[in-house]
Amino acid sequence: MRIGFVKDWRLIASIAAAHVLLFVTFLDQDIFWYIYTAANLFFMSISIINEKIDDQQKTNSFMAYGLLSGAVLYALFAAGFWVISMTPLSVSAHVSAIYAQFTPQFVWHYIVLVLIFIPGEELFWRGFVQKRLSHYMNEWASALIASALFGSVFLYSGQWIWMMAAFCAGLFWGGLYIWKKSIPMLIISHLIFDLLLIVFLPFG
After folding, report:
1. What angle do CA 122, 169, 15 make, to 5 degrees?
2. pLDDT tens for residues 136-171?
3. What are residue 55's DSSP bridge partners?
4. Which of 69, 100, 95, 99 has its CA nearest to residue 82?
5. 8-38 pLDDT, tens per residue?
6. C-alpha distances in angstroms, 17 versus 35, 44, 72, 78?
7. Rounded Cα–Cα distance for residues 82 and 85 (Å)
8. Within 10 A of 128 (CB to CB), how many other CB atoms are there?
9. How many domains does the chain divide into?
10. Nearest-5° angle of CA 183, CA 24, CA 170?
11. Which long-range contacts (CB under 8 A, 24 or more apart) does 15-18 make?
């Protein structure tokens, strides 16, 4: 593993900026949707400027894999939620609190979720951070570190379960990215997962 990434100022500065933006995002529930929209527009801009968007799958292929993988990830999360709910951990209370505070309420919330939040997260965390890290280490190490960084920005939510969920989902999508090298596929996968988790089949 090379440590040249510590000299990659664009990568380091972008991750630092992500932490600042997410800190501000979670300062006040009333501004969450506005600031996180701005944050993901920043993520998209940084990614597009600095890295080519990988798209090595045909449309039919990335649509099929995206739909299936999004459903599979939701099923894994549902199983994990059920198992953890059998333990003394008060996971249901944490999940309910997240839904109560951050579930979309207005039409524009759903629009930015689909068109900005999801593409922004995949372009930045997989298409920029993970890809950039892979220049300095093997692909699986880059996926692990990128996933940990993805989870770390949700520290400011005050919900450990959100951090763990982001880390686990990041590993899943990071592995898909290594396998298929398709950001559009990851965006479809993320979209299906979020729609199931937030809109159609929420937990709790």
Report:
1. 50
2. 999 999 999 999 999 999 999 999 999 999 999 999
3. 182
4. 95
5. 999 999 999 999 999 999 999 999 999 999 9
6. 13, 13, 32, 32
7. 5
8. 26
9. 1
10. 30
11. 15/129, 15/149, 17/42, 18/43, 18/124, 18/149, 18/153
Rounded CA-CA distance 137/129 in Å is 12
Eight-class DSSP state of 2: -
What are the start-end ranges of the H helices in the chain? 9-25, 32-50, 59-85, 91-102, 107-112, 118-121, 131-133, 139-152, 160-180, 183-194
pTM for the model stands at: 0.95
Closest to 41 (Cα-Cα) out of 118, 101, 105? 118
Q: Which domain holds residue 17?
A: 4-51+59-200
Q: Are the C-beta atoms of residues 20 and 99 closer than 8 Å to each other?
A: no
DSSP H helices in 51-90: 59-85
